[in-house]
Amino acid sequence: MTTTASEFDTGTGYGRPKPSYNARLREVGPGTPMGEALRRYWHPIASSETLVAGALPQKTRVLGEDLVVFRDGQGNPGVVIERCTHRGASLFYGRVEDDGIRCCYHGWKFDVQGRCVEQACEPALGRRRDAARQPWYPVEERYGLVFVYMGPPELKPELPRYDALENPAEDERYFASWPVPHAAVLGMPTDFSWLNIYENSADPTHVTWLHSTHSGYQMLGTGTFGFPENFYDPATIAERVTYERTDHGVKYTQRFEAEGEGGEVTEYSFEVEQHLPNVFGLPDFVKVTPDARHDQLLWVVPSDDTSHRLFFSIRGNDPERMVRFVIGITQNGKQNHELTDEERQKFPGDAEAQGSQGAITLDSEETLATGDRGVVMLRRMLLTMADDVEAGRDPINIVRDPSQILHVDSGIFTLGKRRADDSDAKADDTDTNAGVTAGI
Ligand code: FES
Ligand SMILES: [Fe+2]
To answer: Which residue has the CA at smallest separation from atom 3 of ligand 1?
Structure first.
């Protein structure tokens, strides 16, 4: 029997074009457009608490460069290129001393700015040691984190201050390191692109499906002070979420309602701003605490094109807040690393969804829809950031004034109250979504 053309199957997998990703958006190495743009900003590289004076150095990778982080015996943090400038041994095997790090191979010692202060086996400990310089990067500490600047020295900006983390109360501290094994928020490497997760932060619809509908509620605290069911309702999420460009990045606003005693309904907004290039604020996703000063920021730091580390700082006096943040999402009542492969299939979470997008997601294979508005806005703004750097302009959110304090517009806010039977009295919904669904 022959088949006529009109009867052919359509949409099969055969003959698809070669998949590709947008290299301008997704590659971060030295000399790449996004890599150069990201090098104009300070990035967290370690937690202050775990970088102990005189202790063994830490090895890490940022924007495709292998680095060693240490704190000398006098307490000064330092970041140097891992490869020793003498003949290439790794300074990860070096010894941290009072005034620098000493290479294990021939004993050259470098201070936190890479100056060679001693060449152990050379006459007079190195008559020409000034000619040797270990490549290094500037470091500053704030909010319990150690930040590094890897860009052009003459364009080094101020290390930004954020109002969410400024002026801690007397009983507050910064929670910026975490002793739970397997918790990626430690700054442990995760083996997919930083954009898989940064884009995820602009994607509220995944919360209503992946974290609550697909295999059950995954956040701790349900039934006590957890978010009401309508927060997670996938049937209404499209009409409850707006996306907008802000002066600093992209923000989504997700409305939900909670009915109190006596039939009074309060309408809230759950707001998350992506503050370019890689910062975002995440309100407590378990406990509704409206109208409070935001207390936490995250930084998604690319290690290279295909891996990243997530850093955070929480200002607070409530260790439970940190617990909710670090282990607040469970799958089948377990942490992700405790699941069998079969459980991962039945109770998938962020690791399964974002990890399976691939080490770098494939732009050519996507079919974007209205729920991707935030992701699309974010990509466009990141590409504009790269354009600005190429054109010789300061990109977005570069701080030149040390007194400037940035505001990340994240939090849970009260929009209004109404009687349960008064459906007309909802707060205004501003449609800021027009014309942003086209792909990159
Ligand atoms: S390779 Fe480092 S001192 Fe020789
Ligand atoms: Fe998630």
So the answer is: 106
What is the 320 CA–ligand 2 centroid distance (Å)? Answer: 20
Q: What is the pLDDT of residue 420?
A: 80
Q: Give the per-residue pLDDT at 182.
A: 58
- Pick from 94, 109, 142: which residue ends a domain? 142
Count how many domains the chain has. Answer: 2
Query: How far does the centroid of ligand 1 lie from the alpha carbon of residue 94, in Å?
Result: 10
Phi, psi of 427 (to 5 degrees): -65, 155
Q: How far apart are CA 429 and CA 395, in angstroms?
A: 31
CA of 96 to the centre of ligand 1 (A): 14
Q: 159: number of CA atoms within 13 Å, CB side? A: 15
Amino acid making up residue 379? R
pTM greater than 0.90 (yes/no): yes
| Ligand 1 binding pocket mutation candidate from 93, 105, 119, 129 (most atoms within 8 A of CB) | 105
pLDDT for res 74: 98
The predicted structure's pLDDT at residue 430: 43
CATH code: domain of residue 339: 3.90.380
Which portions of the chain are predicted below pLDDT 70? 1-5, 178-188, 221-225, 422-440
Boundaries of domain holding 96: 42-142
Q: Which of 80, 82, 83, 87 to mutate to test the pocket of ligand 1 (most atoms within 8 A of CB)?
A: 87
Q: Which two structure tokens, joined as six digits, stand for 389?
A: 């750097």
Task: Give me the long-range contacts of 120-129 (CB less than 8 A, separation at least 24).
Answer: none
DSSP, res 18: P
Per-residue confidence (pLDDT) for residue 325, from 0 to 100: 82
Q: What is the pLDDT of residue 257?
A: 94
Question: Which pLDDT tens digit goes with each residue over 384-409?
Answer: 999 999 999 999 999 999 999 999 99
Examine the domain organization and report whether 279 and 408 are in the same domain: yes
Burial grade of 40 (CB within 10 A; 0-12, 13-18, 19 or more) = buried
pLDDT score for 320 = 83
Ligand 1 atom closest to residue 120's alpha carbon, by position in its atom list: 3
